[in-house]
Design brief:
Layout (H helix, E strand, L loop, with lengths): L4 E6 L4 H15 L3 E8 L15 H18 L3 E7 L9 H15 L3 E5 L6 H13 L10 E5 L20 E4 L4 H9 L14 H15 L4 E9 L2
Parallel strand pairs: 1-2, 1-4, 2-3, 4-5
Antiparallel strand pairs: 5-7, 6-7
């Protein structure tokens, strides 16, 4: 794959590292320009009703964590927006699509990584739909490749069916970048959980090693191909 610019589109801060932090670090080290677009603020779903002002300090802190984490991965720039956490379905889909189209127009990526369409999390589902819509394969579309990633505690927690089950067909060797991914994830200290939660550092490392064993690597990340144009 001849990638030059990669755009990772995530619903929440930390999704990008959980889903493809190792691949991001590897591609950046290999000379690709890697960019991150985070659509949601990632905090206000913890309340019964959204009160952004009440959570302002936490949102600001989470954005700092995102900047620090992505810097460790070698990301060129992070674009962060403010869509309501776990309430993307309360926003017109077109607003999310337009946001993606704007950043995609600025970056002109060859390749996009985003959420799996079968995730339990509604924001992940909507992000996938918005990405596929924003990257329609028209004549002058820059995006030639789209891949979806898994998110621990979301992808595997949905009820399994042919539409929701994560069946990867593309694997990236992150043996040399697993420590970088873990170090980046450590920056998201407010989002981490204790083992055996899937979003714990130990579980994330074990998951990467499990994919690696299946592919003959020490560690790997798994992806589902959405579209490849040549």
């Amino acid at each position: 794959m001849n990638r030059k610019k990669i755009l990772v589109i995530a619903a929440h801060p930390d999704d990008e590292v959980l889903g493809c932090g190792g691949a991001m670090a590897r591609f950046a080290a290999e000379g690709c320009e890697v960019y991150t677009l985070i659509l949601g603020e990632g905090v206000t779903s913890r309340d019964k009703e959204r009160d952004r002002a009440e959570r302002e300090n936490e949102i600001t802190e989470l954005k700092k964590q995102a900047e620090n984490a992505n810097k460790i991965l070698g990301v060129k720039k992070v674009y962060a927006f403010d869509f309501p956490d776990n309430r993307f379905d309360s926003v017109p889909l077109l607003d999310i699509i337009k946001t993606i189209e704007k950043i995609k127009g600025d970056v002109q990526p060859d390749c996009v990584f985003t959420h799996h369409q079968g995730d339990l999390n509604i924001d992940h589902q909507i992000t996938f739909k918005a990405v596929v819509t924003a990257c329609r394969p028209v004549k002058d579309e820059s995006v030639k490749e789209i891949y979806s990633f898994e998110i621990p505690s979301s992808t595997e927690w949905n009820a399994p069916s042919s539409l929701t089950y994560f069946m990867p067909d593309y694997f990236v060797d992150i043996s040399k970048c697993l420590k970088v991914k873990i170090n980046a994830l450590k920056e998201y200290e407010t989002e981490l959980r204790d083992f055996p939660h899937p979003r714990s550092l130990k579980a994330v490392e074990l998951n990467a090693k499990q994919w690696g064993v299946k592919m003959g690597f020490e560690a790997a990340e798994a992806f589902k191909t959405v579209r490849v144009r040549t």
